[in-house]
């Protein structure tokens, strides 16, 4: 008896996905609710849980295929892990001496070493995708330092460890390398775009085709904010359990500026303009499959600690690939911090249907004039890209000027000035 595995409901307005990866192979034991496949939607990766416990059956679709919500992608057969044992215990044959020697070694690795290693891995708090990668690469996860939330391992941690670890086949690799280099062949690799990357491409191109994009720039003296962080960062972290970063200041500054320039926090729907009396900030963070924008909701009503904690949690979830559809939906304004990657200046693209995005950049010491004197200050370029159909140049410049003044004099954030 077998049970069908179907594509679950993926979220509002999402009717199809791409089967990105099978997490279980046919014949492997599966526990109830254990993830067996990973689906790539327009926004995030979603893991498909097993509806029952049993043995992974045959695949109905292959990796890379497009599937609709409710479609059958595989099956779970009745049984236990014992049913999979014959697959791992081939009968020994001895047609020749070399073959017999190889057969004598293979069962020992397959039936003894692998189950022991897998048992140890199962005791660790690993996500299904990370556990699968660990087993495939033969890496000991207990010897890898995790960079995810609460020290958990991410795929990047495992891949980095695999690249840095000495491989038993190093001699073979060194021997083969001169042959590849001697040919002088120029190689290309063709990889199909993930559904997330395809969606990013379509949305950004749509923004260029639809909106009248324009960008205005300013520079901000970060001295006051950096001094505040240096003075209170230890007390802040001790009290709230989260580090005091720059995003809290800029989010508060955006909320302040949006009250005076509400069109920046609005959107166009047909022939109407929709104004929001709340600020849901989409914060651009880097994920393994591309840039994603989880939403900090009601950011205008949140404290510095709440903002920093929400952004930190989203960053950890993005690295671990655990962002949900709810995390990604909505948003009325976007803040993108290219400075963490070293960007000096850029023209960010709006995230439709939003009408504006604030781009932050790296901080560097520059010579500026203060009170008639040339002094060195930590300066940051900021950029506001906006839809000129809705936002006039005067409004955009005013908005950015308010943000600049609030960052250079954080007292304005406290007295709502």
User: How much helix is in the residues?
Assistant: 25-40%
Query: Which series of helices and strands comes N to C?
Result: EEEEEEEEHHHHHEHHEEEEEHHEEEHH
CATH architecture of the domain at 214-415, by name, is 2-Layer Sandwich
Name the beta content range. 15-25%
Please describe the biggest sheet, giving its number of strands, its sense, and whether it closes into a barrel.
Answer: 7 strands, mixed
CATH class of the domain at 214-415: Alpha Beta
| CATH fold group of the domain at 214-415 | Chloramphenicol Acetyltransferase
- pLDDT < 50 runs, ≥5 residues: 81-120, 166-180
Total DSSP E strands: 17
Distance between the termini: 69 Å
Outline type: globular
Rg, Å, rounded: 27 Å
Mean pLDDT reading: 79
Total helical segments:
11
Task: Provide a brief overview of the structure.
The protein has 417 residues and is an alpha+beta fold.
Structural account:
By secondary structure, the chain is of the alpha+beta class. Among the domains are: 1-88, RNA polymerase II/Efflux pump adaptor protein, barrel-sandwich hybrid domain (OB fold (Dihydrolipoamide Acetyltransferase, E2P)); 214-415, Chloramphenicol Acetyltransferase, CATH 3.30.559. The chain has eleven helices and 17 strands. It has helices at residues 97-122, 128-137, 155-164, 170-183, 195-210, 223-240, 246-260, 304-320, 325-328, 393-408, 411-415; strands spanning 2-6, 16-22, 29-30, 35-40, 45-49, 54-59, 66-68, 72-77, 213-221, 266-269, 272-275, 281-287, 290-292, 295-296, 333-337, 356-370, 373-387. Strands 9, 12, 13, 14, 15, 16 and 17 form a seven-stranded mixed sheet that branches. A hairpin with a 2-residue loop joins strand 12 (281-287) and strand 13 (290-292). Helix 2 (128-137) runs parallel beside helix 3 (155-164), helix 7 crosses helix 8 (304-320) and helix 7 (246-260) packs across helix 10 (393-408).
């Amino acid at each position: 008896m077998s049970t069908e595995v179907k594509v679950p409901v993926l979220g509002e307005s999402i009717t199809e996905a791409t089967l990105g990866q099978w997490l279980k192979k046919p014949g492997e034991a599966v526990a109830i609710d254990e993830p067996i496949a990973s689906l790539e939607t327009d926004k995030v990766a979603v893991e498909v849980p097993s509806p029952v416990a049993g043995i992974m059956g045959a695949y109905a679709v292959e990796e890379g295929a497009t599937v609709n919500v409710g479609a059958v992608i595989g099956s779970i057969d009745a049984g236990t892990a014992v049913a999979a044992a014959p697959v791992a215990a081939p009968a020994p044959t001895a047609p020749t001496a070399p073959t017999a020697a190889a057969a004598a070694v293979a069962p020992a690795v397959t039936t003894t070493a692998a189950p022991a290693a897998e048992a140890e891995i199962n005791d660790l708090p690993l996500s299904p995708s990370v556990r699968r990668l660990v087993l495939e690469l033969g890496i000991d996860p207990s010897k890898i330092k995790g960079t995810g939330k609460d020290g958990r391992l991410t795929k990047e941690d495992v891949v980095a460890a695999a690249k840095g670890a000495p491989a038993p086949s190093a001699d073979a690799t060194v021997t083969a390398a001169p042959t590849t280099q001697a040919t002088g062949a120029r190689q290309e690799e063709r990889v199909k775009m993930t559904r997330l990357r395809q969606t990013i491409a379509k949305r950004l191109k749509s923004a260029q085709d639809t909106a009248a994009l324009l960008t205005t720039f300013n520079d901000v003296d970060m001295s006051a904010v950096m001094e505040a962080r240096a003075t209170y960062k230890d007390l802040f972290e001790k009290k709230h359990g989260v580090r005091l970063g720059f995003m809290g200041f800029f989010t508060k500054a955006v909320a302040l500026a949006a009250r005076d320039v509400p069109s920046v926090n609005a959107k166009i729907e047909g022939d109407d303009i929709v104004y929001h009396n709340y600020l849901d900030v989409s914060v651009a963070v880097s994920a393994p499959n591309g840039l994603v924008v989880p939403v900090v909701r009601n950011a205008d009503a949140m404290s510095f600690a709440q903002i920093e904690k929400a952004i930190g949690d989203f960053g950890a979830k993005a690295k671990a690939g655990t962002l949900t559809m709810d995390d990604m939906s909505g948003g009325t304004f976007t803040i993108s911090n290219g400075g963490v990657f070293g960007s000096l200046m850029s023209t960010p693209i709006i995230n439709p249907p939003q009408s504006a995005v604030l781009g932050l950049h790296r901080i560097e010491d520059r010579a500026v004039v203060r009170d008639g004197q040339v002094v060195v200050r930590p300066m940051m370029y900021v950029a506001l890209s906006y839809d000129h159909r809705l936002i006039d140049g005067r409004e955009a410049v005013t908005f950015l000027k308010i943000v600049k003044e609030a960052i250079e004099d954080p007292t304005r954030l406290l007295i709502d000035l």
